[in-house]
Amino acid sequence: MIQSIQVMALATVLCLAAAPAYVQGAGIKWATLNQEATDLYRAGQYDRGVVVAKKALEVAEKNVGPNHPDVVQSLNNLAALYRAQGQHAQAEPLSRRSLAIDEKALGPDHPDVATSFENLAALYRATRRTVEAERLEERAAGIRAIKR
């Protein structure tokens, strides 16, 4: 009985030891995909960038869950690619989701939340929703004015 408990304990330790390597490998894959999407954006290859950014988002959601900062970055990258293509209807829910995750995870006064407000405001300006854009820009400016 003691020997079988020791074997089970060893098997558990081996499984737990392997988990960080898996997460690290997935994190490297996610980072590589995000970098590729960014490079494609900079090169003006938006269609290809969207495909890669969607894959990066999928990897992030699968490996760290739907409310992690990696997901926020992937959402923002994909939204930027859609905005660059003038596909504002596809970009808006992504920008709104990234803002919601940031506010919940980081709190309403975090500088990253200000960036999310600014991203959404830029989208609203592009779609001539000036009043909404100004409201978000004011909220972002208020966050940025906080002494830290």
Q: What is the overall shape?
A: globular
Please indicate the count of domains: 1
Tell me the major beta sheet.
Answer: none
Q: Regions with pLDDT < 50 over 5+ consecutive residues?
A: 1-23
CATH structural architecture: Alpha Horseshoe
Number of helices: 6
- Element order: H for helix, E for strand: HHHHHH
What is the class in the CATH system?
Answer: Mainly Alpha
Instruction: Round the mean pLDDT to the nearest integer and report it.
Output: 85
Based on CA atoms alone, the radius of gyration comes out at: 20 Å
% residues in beta strands: under 5%
Q: The CATH topology, please? A: Serine Threonine Protein Phosphatase 5, Tetratricopeptide repeat
Question: What is the structural class?
Answer: mainly alpha
Proportion in helices: over 70%
How many strand units?
0
Fold and architecture overview:
The chain has 148 residues and is mainly alpha-helical. It has a single domain, classed as Alpha Horseshoe (Serine Threonine Protein Phosphatase 5, Tetratricopeptide repeat). It has six helices and no strands. The protein has helices spanning 2-42, 46-64, 69-84, 88-106, 111-126, 130-144. Helix 1 (2-42) packs parallel to helix 3 (69-84). The radius of gyration is 20 Å and the shape is globular. The termini are far apart.
Features:
6 helices, Serine Threonine Protein Phosphatase 5, Tetratricopeptide repeat, 85% helix, 148 residues, mainly alpha
Question: SSE layout and pairings?
Answer:
Elements lengths: L1 H41 L3 H19 L4 H16 L3 H19 L4 H16 L3 H15 L4
Helix pairs in contact: 1-2, 1-3, 2-3, 3-4, 4-5, 5-6
